[in-house]
Amino acid sequence: MMWVKSLQTAIDYMEDHLLDDLPIERIAQQANFSVFHFQRTFSILTDISVGEYLRRRRLTLAAYELTRSDAKIIDLAYKYGYETPEAFTKAFRRQHGVTPSEARKYTGKLKSYNRLVVQVNVKGAEPMQVKMVEREGFQIVGLKQNFSLINEDNLVGIPQMWDKVYREGSYKRLFSMNNGPVEGVLGVCVEKNSQSIDYWVATAHRDSAPDELSTLEIPASKWAIFEVHGPMPDAMQKAWKQIFSEWFPSSGYKHAGTPDLEVYSGTNPSNPDLYSEIWIPVK
């Protein structure tokens, strides 16, 4: 459970430096995680991004100070990381439902987000269907796009990429090319450096790739393969949360550090009976 303690160390660091400029690289370093691994683990376990957590906590403290002091709104805006009072007012209203000026004389409740404490369940209430397999390396072929991690652009860009793949028919084309050892269309994240990832929508394919598609070698691995049942994206998100909060803490396995796979077996992502898989390389 060392990774849980590491994650909490990073959260405590954020709390101790809420009024500072906090680059995501510096936060991830506190947990000894890569930026991508920290960002993903945090969002899976908390259902919000790192940036959103910081915004919520800063605006919670700003509301507390606003209603208990005579500090000027412009001073609070700068103190809590906003370049202009207008930007502060917009963010404040979005979270609390009132403007800072209205909050000073507001008698209702403002929305408060408390300091986060990470907890995991070592025994799951719902059974997980998982099998362990060893596979030789194989090639995937597909579409690749680079996304920045710094401003969490990947959290917005990857769903947009999937929308485009469905809209333009690339999804069905990749299904038709699938002749490798993994059946289906794959979603694959590959870390490039501390600031960006390559995201792939691809398929296992033994032959040469058409010129407009790219190729990537997935290394030989021991895989933990989890069954996922239900429509996207809810079923996949639920499965990832269960893996991180229940399976990893109790299994004794660690992530091997190479790309994991989301495997989609059907062409209709809203099908309530959709079967998918998550493949995680472990050691």
Write the layout of secondary structure elements.
Elements: H1 2-16, H2 24-30, H3 35-46, H4 50-68, H5 73-79, H6 85-96, H7 100-104, E1 130-135, E2 138-148, H8 153-167, H9 170-177, E3 185-193, E4 196-204, E5 214-218, E6 221-229, H10 234-251, E7 261-264, E8 275-281
Antiparallel strand pairs: 1-6, 2-4, 2-5, 3-4, 3-7, 6-8, 7-8
What can you see in these coordinates?
There is one protein chain. The protein has 283 residues and is an alpha+beta fold. The chain has 2 domains: 103 residues, Homeodomain-like (Arc Repressor Mutant, subunit A), CATH 1.10.10.60; 152 residues, Alpha-Beta Barrel (Multidrug-efflux Transporter 1 Regulator Bmrr, Chain A), CATH 3.20.80.10. The protein is 42% helix and 21% strand. The protein contains 10 helices and 8 strands. An 8-stranded antiparallel β-sheet has the order 1-6-8-7-3-4-2-5. α1 crosses α2 and α5 crosses α6. The two termini are 15 Å apart. The mean pLDDT is 91.
Q: What is the CA–CA distance across the termini? A: 15 Å
| Overall average residue pLDDT | 91
**Coarse shape:** elongated
Content-based structural category? alpha+beta
Range of helix content: 40-55%
As an assembly, this protein is: single chain
